[in-house]
Amino acid sequence: MTVRKTAVTTVPLHPLLAERWSPRGLDAVHELPDAQLTALLEAARWAPSASNTQPWRFAVARRGTDAFTAVRDTLAAGNQLWAHAASALVVVAAQTTGPDGAPRPWAAYDTGQAVAHLSVQAQHEGLALHQLGGFDRDRVAALLDLPAAVVPLVVLAVGRHDGQAELPEALAAREQAPRERLPLDALLLPLPTGPAEEPAA
């Protein structure tokens, strides 16, 4: 069964944005081709970052490997129920200090931009992408032997959507539910309307 969740927007959006969503039903036999994986990582590589510091780092574990099993086992129990069918699990981390030890205060923000670029490329490639915050960061850091300055932020489950995939009832219902967002007006911060106050002497 094909599930379409095109966003209901006040003005038209590019289809890659309007049709992107985060399924949990994945094809457990789909294999991620090298060319598509490279395209995802290239899309992330060319994201903008503060002073071009490029703080994002990736670890890719394909299904059927020991690495995949190890990353899967760090996921929260509810995520393990379906993420085992992903073609690959991608750990995304941010390098929070530079080579000189100076902090990179925008590292997490920039890494989020890289993932956003990756997610749009995945939509273009006809792939499903679900971003997971429910995982044990300390276990992932130990698994990858990450230095303290490289902080795991998210795990991406990448694969091909399967509308017939078996899911627990609650998750299956969420697959069919319409996408929801706050109305645009609720996201706009009010601006001051009077003259700016002079700072106190």
From TrEMBL:
Pfam families: Nitroreductase. The keyword Transcription does not apply. Residues 18-160 form the Nitroreductase domain. Keywords: Oxidoreductase. InterPro entries: Nitroreductase (IPR029479), Nitroreductase-like (IPR000415). It comes from the Bacteria. SUPFAM superfamilies: FMN-dependent nitroreductase-like. Coiled coil: none annotated. One of its GO terms (molecular function) is oxidoreductase activity. Belongs to the nitroreductase family. This is Nitroreductase.
